[in-house]
Amino acid sequence: MLARREVLQKCFALGSIIIASDFSADSMLFALQEGEKPLPKPTPTNPLGPFYKRLTPVNNILRAPGDPGLPLTLSGQVVDTRGDIVPDATIEIWQTNHHGLYDIDGYRYRGKQTVDSTGAYSFESVIPGHYPDKTRVCQHVHYLVMAPGHKPLVTQLYFATDPAFEGDPRRNYARDPLLQTPELIRPVVLTGEPNELHAKVRFELYLERL
Amino acid sequence: MNMKVAALTLVCCLPVVASAQSGRQVKTINLPAGVTVQYGTMSRAGTLVATIDCDNVVRVWSTRSGELLQRLADGGHPPTDVEFSPDGRYLVVAYQLVPNEKGVLRIFDVDSWKMEHEFVVPDVFALAISPDNRRLALSGRVTQAWDVENSRMLADISPPFGGSTSLSFSGDGSWVATADGDGHVRVFDAATGKPRSTGTEFVLEPLAVAFSRDNKSVIAGGVDKTLSIIDPETGKVLRTLTKQPGLIISLDVSADKKQVAVIYGSADYFDKVGHLMLWDLDTGAVLADFRKPGITIVGGAFVGDHYLFAAASDNQLGVWSLR
């Protein structure tokens, strides 16, 4: 198992700790020229299973004290494709533990919450591990987002720091056979002291209206 | 790439406990150099096996002679599923045209290899053909029932979210059962899409579903590692068979509806396939338990008093008999 410092060194070496905008330079320039805020596209979908588990309890603290792995805060906002906040959305997430294993018998690293009045959400977890012996499946967190009047969104969040992307997710995203777009790969921001590092990832979720 | 094929692409042939019981290899087919099998299926008579291979080619082999009978490719478009019709007359191949958006289904006569039908559909993850060859069910981004002759969609039977992993027609083709990602097994009228009941809820995802040949029960299993026998009329679970260590990947019911063959994955993942069990549906007893390291069981058929199945390894396709 890699120590946190080694993980960090590898990430920096690969240039994969990135702070990036949600929008490309072209789309931002177009928006400035037109004087309009670009409307978001719906978040791309990604397969649900097969380890979705019904009846996940309401809980946004998935990390227990002493759990191995790099602590992770996942946060974002749920809006629709007109840019309006979706204040009554429910988000379920599930992921492997640090060792790449899902909890099938219980609900570890599975959580559910309703967004607040601004559409915001957050979960406390750890960076998930790779599936054992499967280097082509990148680290990911599953999302199921439901809101009245909107299409359910089933997708997955991937990490720009995943070694599989070799520091260039836009070029190398297809190394995971389930990834059809780099849009689901999010930058990872590391904060804290070297011996108390903490990863933060924002994942905005754009729902389609029915 | 389709999840079904992608999953098997990632097969890890780690050794598992070897305890092959009454299973014997009856034919070895050497694959072309560099070709590995990603997915496969066997005709119900056990005479043909069709595989989706890593070079995006569907190959059809004779299980008796080991001869390559047909090679089907579509200009690099990846095949996403392949299934024989229950009577063995047709082979249906799905190709992906646009990921997550569009695919094409081609139906071939397996004697002449003439393409009988072709129609553009949403992407296809799984498909099933009714016993009378008149209807098809497919799942991908959506789950739908289709009329084959008129290339017309009959009904949208999509679950609220998560798609369908497995589909099965009743013996008369009038009902279709779906194993859905949202944790339900549902039964629909194949012509209208009307649900037969509110469905059966599972906490974990069902991955395989099959009607019994007399239409009186639906058998399902998945991540919960347990076979459930369901009343299709009410959706009620009538009974369950003993839970096993591995995830249930696929299942196949015998014509006399007394046996079911179940392919299991590993305890943690659905793609380490090297374990097959034959169950007596009446008694719940295990009739045979076949485990073999380094192989991936790709499909089989009840033939006479034994279960014939195909299993892939690095550069070979083996045909095995289990009784």
Structure overview:
The complex is a heterodimer of chains A (210) and B (323). Chain A has three helices and ten strands. By secondary structure, chain A is α/β, with parallel strands linked by helices. In chain A, the strands form two sheets. In chain A, strands 1, 4, 8, 9 and 10 form a five-stranded mixed sheet that branches. A five-stranded mixed sheet of chain A has the order 3-2-5-6-7, with no helix packed on it. In chain A, strand 6 (153-159), helix 3 (169-172) and strand 7 form a beta-alpha-beta unit. The N and C termini of chain A lie far apart (46 Å). Mean pLDDT of chain A is 85; it is low at 1-33. Chain B is mainly β. A four-stranded antiparallel sheet of chain B has the order 1-28-27-26, with no helix packed on it. In chain B, strands 2-3-4-5 form a four-stranded antiparallel sheet. The radius of gyration of chain B is 18 Å and the shape is globular. Classes of the chains: A alpha/beta (210), B mainly beta (323). Chain A binds chain B through residues 45, 47-55, 101-102, 104, 131-134, 136-137, 144, 146, 152, 154, 177-178, 180, and chain B through 1, 3, 6, 9-10, 12, 14, 99-100, 141, 160-163, 165, 181-183, 201-205, 207, 222-223, 247, 268-270.
Greatest contact pair? A-B, 26 and 30 residues
Q: Biggest sheet of chain B: strands side by side, in what order? A: 1-28-27-26
Given the structure, what is the number of helices of chain A?
3
What would the average pLDDT of chain B be, to the nearest integer?
A: 90
| Whole-number tally of structural domains of chain A | 1
Overall pLDDT score of chain A = 85
* Integer count of domains of chain B: 1
**In one word, what is the shape of chain A?**
globular
Q: What is the CATH class name of chain A?
A: Mainly Beta
Strand content of chain A: 25-35%
Give the count of helical stretches of chain B: 1
Please tally the β strands of chain B and state the result. 28
Q: Structural class given helices, strands, pairing of chain B?
A: mainly beta
Question: What are the segments of chain B in which pLDDT stays under 50 over at least 5 consecutive residues?
Answer: 1-20
In the CATH hierarchy, the third-tier topology of chain B is known as Methylamine Dehydrogenase, Chain H
CATH class category of chain B: Mainly Beta
User: Major sheet of chain A, described briefly?
Assistant: 5 strands, mixed
